[in-house]
Amino acid sequence: MHCAACQSPIDPGDSRCRKCGAAVRRSDPDSERRFVTILRADVIDSTGLVAELDPEEAVSRLEPALAAMRASVRQFSGIVSKELGDGLSAVFGAPIADDNHAPLACHAAIELVRRVASLGDPGLQVRVGLHSGHVVAYMVASEFSKVYEIGGAAQHLAARLEQEAEANQIYVSEACHNLADGHVRFEHLGDKSLRGFSQPVPVYRIVGASDLSSWRVRRARSVSRFVDRTTERDLLDRAAGQARASRQTVLLLGDAGIGKSRLAHEFAQKLRAEGWRLIDAECSPNLQGAPFSTLKRILLSGMDTAARDPGDPLKDLSAIQQSALDAVLDVPIANPQWDELEPHARGRVISDASCAVIQSLASRQRTVLLLEDLHWIDRASDVVVAAIASLAVPDLLVLLTSRPNGMPVWIARCHAEVVAMRPLDDDSGLEMLSDMLGSSETNADLKSRIISHTANVPLFIEEVCRGLKESGTLRGEWGDLALVRPIDELGIPTSIQGVIAARLDRVSKQERSVLQVAAALGARSSEALLRKIAIQPEDALRGCLVSLDRAELLVRIDSELEDSLEFRHEMVRQVTYDSMVEKVREDIHARILAALERSEAEDPDKLCYHATRAKDWDKAFGYGRASARKCLARSAFTDAADYFEAAMRSLDKTPENPVREAKAVDIRIEARAAFIGSGHISEWLNLGKEAQRRADAINDIGRKVAAMTVVAAAQNFYGAPVEAITLNEEVVGLAEQSDNSGWLNAAQYGLGQVYFLSGRYREADGLFARACAQLMGPEASAPFGTTPKFALLLCCMMGSINHTVMGELDAAEQLQREAAAIADETSRPYDRVAAAYSGGWLMLGRGDPAVAASILEGGFVLAQKHGIRLFVPVLACHLGIAYLEQGLYDRACGMLAEAREEARAVGYTSAVLRSSIYLALATNRLGDVQAAQNMLREARNTARQQGFSGLEAEALFGEAVVTPPSSEENRTIILSALRAAIAIASESGAKPLLQKAEAMLNGMLAEGHEFA
User: Fold this and answer.
1) Can you say how many angstroms the Cα of residue 852 is from the centroid of all Cα atoms in its chain?
2) How are beta strands 32-43 and 87-92 bridged, if at all?
3) Phi, psi of 299 (to 5 degrees)
4) Under a CB-based contact definition with an 8 Å cutoff, are residues 836 and 803 in contact?
């Protein structure tokens, strides 16, 4: 064992490292997370059955039922994890993973009920509950033995289903039903309220075993077309051709999901269409303990095909061979000679008789014997199949499928050709996805992600797509599916978790440990880094890496810079990572963190991730904050917001004290820039309110002023000016009292902004001018979390826009040049977007919409590219205005409608109103006067109610423009709207709007439209 901090050796009894003093972190290597099926069964009213019996009599009454339960569980590869006096709890799929854990558990439950009923005691009635889910599995050691136990919420649902079940019934959860459907027949009982569960739970009842083969179950679920496999089909075609001269045996070898069965059945059906006889059977995991179960299926299939032949293929068999076949087929035997044979001799006769039947069938018609899933063959059948696969007869092709861990030793003796199945190539994987999702380019990115996630394993591709469709992420019909919401992670469908877990269980404990470290490092990691973290001797580690590479779980990727290790596909990494219990994960991430901290070149992003997973909250806070700052520097606001969130969560997990609370206020104030840029206005507002609450709690006036400034700035966008003005004016007063020029500048900027939004342009100008003067001076000061230069850019941007609205274009030009110069100097995307916004507005004020459109288009693209969502609606709005003024009415309508929807999504109130006003003007130009009038009236009323007087004036002028002067009533409306707009514009100082409204009013008056 080694220290997680310095990697020094540690003695088993040490509690601290003798070299660095770090606390020793231990984890139980036998504990791990598993996806399993849990079976709970008990005898109904067992207390009443034994209440009046002596202890010995009570035991003898219940023990036969318990013995039947144990035997049923073990018959289907389950583990009895706990005996409960009158019942038991069992687990399927652990400690060795099995992808058939749900069907096996269902068959065990059916057998359990059957065995107890066959005891002949009518008082013994049982009930069973089954559920599939994640558990923590662990070994509990006692003085004499070890017991395999499970823990977690999943076992409680199985117990509740058991308690709900009626006598001799098996109740099953939806998760178990989904995994076993087709293998077992179910009846849906609807949703039931179960004790301890807040919502009703879907419940199913098992009504019997299915007679469908595993292939037919899989084929019924499949929605994909058979693609590619050109190389493998050519090999099979060659083997079929050579079978003319002598028997040929081919084994398709590959892991679960690789497509063995699909290829085998596609090829077998092709041969059948060409006149071949098809004998097909499969080995069943449910019948591995039943002697000759596989051989019985082969014989039944062969005799079924022979029934259509003119002759009897069994007529040449001797009497003893007939008895041998009857024994396999469970037909009563009345042959004394058979009864006298020793078991070994009986097996030899069965083998000879079976070979004779197959040879006879092949002599009558070319025959392909398809036997699937050889890894599940029962021991008795294995000997006979080996003999059949070694027959020296022509016109017989033996086609077998198997997983690598189940390949029998006799394959080499029968000179079989082994075809190792590989994943599809990228082109075939994309072809398969196009069949399922459709050929639209809109899904191109999703298809690439699925290819990378699944490494082109056909079953994995199909199940991932099915999971996306069933969850509603993909909508439509197969062959024409559309992605309706973004995907963070593709995840691992429950139907294939066991498939991958079974592969992982084939590696040694040491190899599993290395795989877990690699999974914590990520999809690709440096081999040198893994060597630092893996606690193994060099020789052992080298052997593990070779074995894992050979198993294609963790493969070596050579590059010019360093040797890297890469998971063959992401799903293997996820299952490996998910299998670790929390303590093991924390220990590994702590070791990774310690190793990375010794390397100065590492980014804080990785350090934050590993510190969070190691639950080292102090370090997670520091690295999260550093990562957020790094993202802010490159205008990656969404990523910055995520890191700030991680840092805030980490800080709140540390002990509460005034120092922590001061840090909590500071980081929320600093984080405002990320939430502003990404357009998360409600979160921005909540950040400020939470910072204010915490500052109040520790009575920190300076931090309270800062927090209130953040709240006030957010309120400018999120609420109505009436509320925002009151708050901003209070903040400016507090900032003046606090004598903090940085926060005073921010407060003045915020108050100027809300004055602008409320149409008080002259007052806004004074505030912007004061802030600009201080920020241009030698003692320029900006609030915490920003720089004087950036604060100056914003003040110049808003000052330029304000002067443009007032018609003072030279002053606007001067401020715009200052904003553009700062943006050119910093080259930050956010700064360039801000300068483009005010620059486009200035060009519109100068009456040059074409140049304005060019500037605004550049800013709009940049804002979208970098996720600067706060600017997207206002840039789109003014771009729409530029199109409108150029006479591009269709383009204007589209852009303005997009601006309005984006503004609504962000919560940007004034942008919703401005977009609506100009969308109405564009709609009017396209001929829909009534719709335009309705939009303008609604915008005017909303602006008046909420205090956006400048926008109210623009809406009034718009009403005058779109209302046709075709009646006295309409002319009255126009004149009234113009006079109201003139009054507001005159008071606010919006000269361009004032001049346009006066010119229109004077024109109407000159035409004689005035009346009393």
Assistant:
1) 42
2) antiparallel
3) -65, -45
4) no
Which region among 136-145, 362-371, 805-814 has the lowest average model confidence (pLDDT)?
136-145
- pLDDT for position 9: 56
Reported as a single tens digit per residue, the pLDDT across 767-797 is 999 999 999 988 888 887 788 998 999 999 9
Sign of CA dihedral 319, 323, 329, 334: positive
The angle formed by the CA atoms of residues 588, 591 and 592, to the nearest 5 degrees, is 85
Crossing angle of the two packed helices 809-826 and 788-806, in degrees rounded to 10: 150
**Best CA proximity match to 465, nearest among 441, 483, 486, 488:** 483
Closest C-alpha among 82, 7, 75, 89 to residue 40: 89
Strands 367-372 and 277-282: parallel
pLDDT score for 613: 94
Mean pLDDT of 913-934: 94
pLDDT at 875 over 70: yes
Judge contact between 844 and 815, C-beta under 8 A. Answer: no
Q: What is the rounded CA–CA span in Å between residue 811 and residue 60?
A: 102
Residue pair 658/695 in contact by the 8 Å Cβ criterion: no
Give the Cα separation of 957 and 992 in Å (integer): 12
Strand partners, 842: none
What average pLDDT does the segment 366-371 reach?
A: 94
How far from 338 is each of 291, 313, 324, 381, 384, CA to CA, in Å? 17, 21, 8, 19, 18
Angle between helices 968-988 and 949-962 (to 10 degrees): 150
Q: What is the residue type of 357?
A: V
| Element at 34 (helix H, strand E) | strand 32-43
Region of poorest pLDDT, from 187-196, 210-219, 772-781, 839-848: 210-219
Confidence of residue 1 (pLDDT cuts 50, 70, 90): very low
How many beta carbons lie within 10 A of that of residue 436, not counting itself? 22
Residue 126 φ/ψ, nearest 5 degrees: -120, 165
**pTM across the whole model:** 0.75
Ranked by mean pLDDT, the top range of 79-93, 97-111, 473-487 is 97-111
* β-strand pairing of 480-483 with 474-477: antiparallel
Q: Which two tokens stand for residue 568?
A: 């063959």
Report the pLDDT value the prediction gives residue 526, as an integer from 0 to 100. Answer: 86
How many whole angstroms separate alpha carbon 490 and alpha carbon 878? Answer: 38
Identify which has the larger pLDDT, 863 or 30. Answer: 863
Residue listed under structure tokens 């630092």 = 532
Nearest Cα to 91, choosing from 508, 583, 498?
498
- Confirm if 74 and 135 have CB atoms less than 8 A apart: no
Cα four-point dihedral sign 63, 64, 66, 70: positive
Which of these, 447, 445, 419, 423, lies nearest to 435 by C-alpha position?
447
Bridge partner residues of 253 (DSSP): 402, 420
Q: Tokens at residue 342, please?
A: 């020793």
Neighbours of 27 (CB within 10 A): 15
- β-partners of residue 185 are 208
Q: CB neighbours of 55 closer than 8 A, spacing ≥ 6?
A: none
Residue bearing tokens 């500037």: 855
- pLDDT for residue 29: 42
Q: Which residues of 132-163 are buried (b: 16+ CB within 10 A; e: fewer)?
A: bbbbebbeeeeeeeeebbbeeebbbbbbbbbe
Q: What is the DSSP letter of 985?
A: H
Alpha helices (runs of H) in 165-284, residue ranges in sequence order: 174-180, 214-221, 230-242, 260-273
Contact between residue 171 and residue 164 where contact means Cβ atoms under 8 Å apart: yes
Q: Write out pLDDT tens, residues 571-592.
A: 889 999 988 888 889 999 999 9
Q: Which long-range contacts (CB under 8 A, 24 or more apart) does 92-95 make?
A: 92/36, 92/37, 92/38, 92/39, 93/34, 93/35, 93/36, 93/37, 93/498, 93/501, 94/34, 94/36, 94/135, 94/137, 94/148, 94/150, 95/34, 95/137, 95/148
Q: What is the pLDDT of residue 52?
A: 64
